[in-house]
Design a protein that fits this description.
mainly alpha, 179 residues
Length: 179
Amino acid sequence: MPSPQTLSDDRRRVVAAWAADCASRVLPLFEAEAPDDGRARDAIERARGYARGELDAAGQIRVRLVAGRAAASATSPAGAAAARAAAQASGVAHMGAHALGAAAYAAKAVGLAAPGDPHAVDDEIRWQLAAADQRVREALRLLPPLGTDRSGPLGTGLLTAGVLGSAIRTLQERLAEQR
């Protein structure tokens, strides 16, 4: 039985575009630190290509970890979080729950880049929700609440703790309120 974090291929394509939008907003943080490293930008473009139906899930699954390794090229935690947002966006072809990972890493990157702004993360989450159309919101609502299903990125791992976990919980709570 597939994980409830997977989503159907059609729904993964819908949320892949949104995840790419979330990651694109913070990509300049990474590119300012690693201008010659195109892996994060490529990951976002591949997520968009998958969303448009130009790339298949199998091909994306094979290359989804490339952008994650780009985080090592960053010189700051904000730049590394931006690269990880791109990696999560590219992972949506594999599992839909990575869309929330992309959004969470983007929010984390924004917060790290603006340490004096206590509203930066929440403002980014507000933007993310406003950028999610009805189809995206419906697909994201199908994902299990953070920490309740161990079979994917929303299980008990890295995405459940700290700023990442807080961002995903906030996204899921606000999505539930928008019904």
